[in-house]
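Hello,

Our lab assistant flagged a job as stuck in the queue for most of the afternoon. It eventually completed. Since we weren't sure the result was trustworthy after the delay, we are filing this so someone can double-check. Below is the sequence as submitted and the structure that was eventually returned. Let us know if re-running is recommended.
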Amino acid sequence: MTLRERKKLRTRAAISEAAISLFIEHGFDQVSITQVAEAADVSRRTLFAYFPTKEDLVVHRFADHEDEPARVVRARPAGQSPLAALHEHYLDALRRHDPVTGLTDVPEVLHLYDLLRSAPQLMARMLQFNESSETQLAAALHETADTAELPARLAAAQIVSVQWTLSMANYERAVAGARADQAYPAAAAAANQAFDLLTGGLGNLWPNTQLP
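-- returned structure --
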């Protein structure tokens, strides 16, 4: 990375950290863009150059995962079905307590989920995030799994919705007081059940599906 690129990354991180800290402390609706810019020591113009909307200050934390299902499908070994690859990947994320699964003990991550649930605007933005993930997954299924366009779109919608539902259920376990290690068996069992159900509905698209 060049010095300029490193500086841009640091600025982006500083803005994000300032925003989320303020949102968690005071509430999403109670904090203005001006307050975030002042806390990050940047201008409003600079802030909007990095984050076009207020909601992006929060949702961008999930950005690395937006195309993740599509990447998993494209990178799967020859002979492995898309569902099997996605199931295996999700189970591995659970074992690692990846924050995107909701199975975590990290207070900052749990606060981030709290923040999402507290503001309808953020949940609406997450729906857009999931729609984008569905679109990219559908393209991957269509292009790499010999799946017609409409079935690929329908399958992607179900898969992304199931993974999001699983992650929110894991977050709810954490809110109820369960440690990640304690909640892992139930989380893994729920994931297995969910992918079994997906296989029952989508298995005819990829008949060689063998789940982990």
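-- support follow-up --
The delay was a queue issue, not a problem with the job. The result is valid. Residues 64 and 100 are 10 Å apart (CA to CA). The radius of gyration is 19 Å.
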